[in-house]
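User: Reviewer 2 asked us to show a designed sequence for the structure in our supplementary figure. I'm pasting the structure tokens here. Could you produce the per-position amino acids so we can include them in the response letter?
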């Protein structure tokens, strides 16, 4: 009697399963489960299942796929139950969604506060059908100017969720030219002498610049990093779905890339949390104390999630399937691609705002609609600019707000993303650009090619460094040594055949001066007199440089800088018409002016700490330069301060920021 009741129950359940199979087909997130004595004996995605059938006089149950291949078969008496269920796990600790106004929110049950630091740029991604966080920082940038912060230090439930085993999930993309700089970069992490997160690792032994899951787990209280490397070196502009799992019960860490398990390593013990002040997750950078982030780069972050549990392979597969479906879907062709812009810039009525990307067309229009619900909006026609991109004119009546930008071309539209415009009466002129050691991306620093690149770009200046050999030849190089040869203690014959990484022989200053003389480019050569073994020798190098410039007849194309105050004063004495700036940051404008020195060339932090120095210098007819300014946010801040020049490794980006400020001056 019991067997008959069981079979009747299974038949009833089977009828429901057959109906469910028909209705659920095509729902990728639904799975069919067959149970025996409470355990799963068969599982597959509902979209693979075409039918569930009773066979052999209703004593056998069989499941068939959409091509009528049998997936599973068993005696009916063996089967306890058949169920359909959603197999996707829920990110119950953190699930960040980005908003077009630059803010972000956590939609997980935990409901954490997501703090936007700086001016995060948000773009719309048509593939993933959501807004993404877009960062355009040099590799391993520290500090990171813009990032998101999720503080969990006082959230006991969150910390407990991490401590008993956890999973991190992200979809991200990075971008770089050539090869990856050998320095750590992090887009979603909570590290600082402990913690957990993702990074692109440095080369060390067998380790490459690869996607890595890095929890800190140990059986003692000391720090022990668990290097769960994936073997995947991220390629530029390629999105990756990455899942890192720390299973405390199993004592193992796992890393998955695009649904595939790439590595399993031992991870026995307890999670060590980051240092106090750094117990927060960063998106766009890694915590470095309570109010700073580090290890930034060019990222596009689509998702950033934390799960309380150590997910299984099946659960990771279900997450990847969701991502893969979006990637495989035929997204509408984009009107423009590689969209990039900077949020939070000051603009004025009648001024301009630049948006970069490929395939903009004359006649395109961009609608700016308030992302905060204030009702402010305007439509602007684009003007193409070089490099690829456009400017739009800010109309009278525009107000400070966060805006959603939508491109229209005829009947077609494309959401570009969100930006914040700070409407002001006017801005200072943009800081003029000096290429640090030349424009050397793709070639060698301080090479002839780097100077030529800077001249072709037309920036204000190309900075270089000179050393004096024992027989008084001025050689170009930043470091005291080149290929393990110390220049200032060597003769010209000992250094003249040393080779740069691009194959050039090490230049003399005379080579650069000849390039200046023969060029029609407005780019000046900014000569740094390096600090030699004695200050007297540094002054001799300054004397030799001034004499070489006079012999070449290019005084109007050369300026000087040095950390040696005596060298700067000597140059001013030798050539009272020369422009010479002091680098060390410890002398006020009045004192420098008394020595005949014409400029302050300091770190931006010095000007921030001494906010009156820029005005004092200008009142004395002096100039100000800030070094080395490598992020767009820093470039904008320097221009806002009214600093005349900035020295950077990224002169193309700096030129774009200068164009913006000049367009709103």
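Assistant: Here is a per-position design you can include in the supplement:
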């Amino acid at each position: 009697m019991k067997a008959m009741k069981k079979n009747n129950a299974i038949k009833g359940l089977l009828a429901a399963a057959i109906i469910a199979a028909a209705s659920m087909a095509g729902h990728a997130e639904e799975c069919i489960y067959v149970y025996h004595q409470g355990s799963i004996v068969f599982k597959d995605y509902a979209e693979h299942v075409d039918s569930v059938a009773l066979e052999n006089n209703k004593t056998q149950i069989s499941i068939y796929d959409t091509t009528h291949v049998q997936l599973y078969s068993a005696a009916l008496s063996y089967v306890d139950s058949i169920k359909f269920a959603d197999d996707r796990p829920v990110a119950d600790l953190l699930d960040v969604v980005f908003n077009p106004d630059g803010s972000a929110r956590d939609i997980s049950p935990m409901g954490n506060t997501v703090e936007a630091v700086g001016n995060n740029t948000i773009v719309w991604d048509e593939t993933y059908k959501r807004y993404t966080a877009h960062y355009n920082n040099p590799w391993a940038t520290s500090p990171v100017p813009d990032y998101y912060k999720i503080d969990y230090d006082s959230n006991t439930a969150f910390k407990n969720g991490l401590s008993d085993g956890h999973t991190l999930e992200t979809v991200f993309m990075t971008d770089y030219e050539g090869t990856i700089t050998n320095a750590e970069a992090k887009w979603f992490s909570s590290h600082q002498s402990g913690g957990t997160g993702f990074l692109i690792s440095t080369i060390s032994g067998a380790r490459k610049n690869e996607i890595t899951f890095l929890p800190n787990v140990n059986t003692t209280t000391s720090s022990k990093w668990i290097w769960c490397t994936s073997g995947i070196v991220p390629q530029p502009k390629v999105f990756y779905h990455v899942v890192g799992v720390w299973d405390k019960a199993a004592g193992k860490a796992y890393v998955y890339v695009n649904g595939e398990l790439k590595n399993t390593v031992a991870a026995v013990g307890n999670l060590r949390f980051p240092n106090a002040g750094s117990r927060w997750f960063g998106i766009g950078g890694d915590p470095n104390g309570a109010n700073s982030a580090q290890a930034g780069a060019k990222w596009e972050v689509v998702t950033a999630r934390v799960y309380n549990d150590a997910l299984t392979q099946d659960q990771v597969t279900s997450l990847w399937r969701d991502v893969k479906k979006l990637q495989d879907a035929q997204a509408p062709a984009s009107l423009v691609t590689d969209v990039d812009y900077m949020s939070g810039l000051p603009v004025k009525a009648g001024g301009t705002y630049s948006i970069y990307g490929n395939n903009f067309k004359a006649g395109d229009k961009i609608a700016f609609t308030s992302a905060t619900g204030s009702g402010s909006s305007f439509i602007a026609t684009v003007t193409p600019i070089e490099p690829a991109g456009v400017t739009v004119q800010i109309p009278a009546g525009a107000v400070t707000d966060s805006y959603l930008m939508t491109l229209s071309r005829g009947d077609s539209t494309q959401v570009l993303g969100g930006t914040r415009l700070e409407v002001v009466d006017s801005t200072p002129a943009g800081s003029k650009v000096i290429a640090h050691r030349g424009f050397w991306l793709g070639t060698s620093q301080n090479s002839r090619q780097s100077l030529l690149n800077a001249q072709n770009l037309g920036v204000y200046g190309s900075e270089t460094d000179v050393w004096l050999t024992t027989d008084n030849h001025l050689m170009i190089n930043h470091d005291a040594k080149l290929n393990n040869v110390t220049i200032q203690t060597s003769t010209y014959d000992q250094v003249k055949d040393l080779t740069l990484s691009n194959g050039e022989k090490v230049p003399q200053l005379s080579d650069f001066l000849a390039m200046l003389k023969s060029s029609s480019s407005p780019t000046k050569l900014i000569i740094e007199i390096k600090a030699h073994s004695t200050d007297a020798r540094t002054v001799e190098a300054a004397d030799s440089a001034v004499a070489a410039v006079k012999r070449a007849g290019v005084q109007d194309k050369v300026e000087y800088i040095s950390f040696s105050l005596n060298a700067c004063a000597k140059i001013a004495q030798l050539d009272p018409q020369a422009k010479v700036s002091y680098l060390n940051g410890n002398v006020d404008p009045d004192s420098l002016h008394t020595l005949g020195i014409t400029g302050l060339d300091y770190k931006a932090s010095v000007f921030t700490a001494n906010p009156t120095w820029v005005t004092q210098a200008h009142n004395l007819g002096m100039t100000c330069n800030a070094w080395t300014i490598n992020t767009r946010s820093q470039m904008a801040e320097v221009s806002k301060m009214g600093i005349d020049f900035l020295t950077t490794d990224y002169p193309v980006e700096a030129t774009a920021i200068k164009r913006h400020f000049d367009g709103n001056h």
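For the response letter, you might also mention the following. The longest helix spans residues 2-24. Residues 94-328 form a domain with the Jelly Rolls fold (CATH 2.60.120.200).
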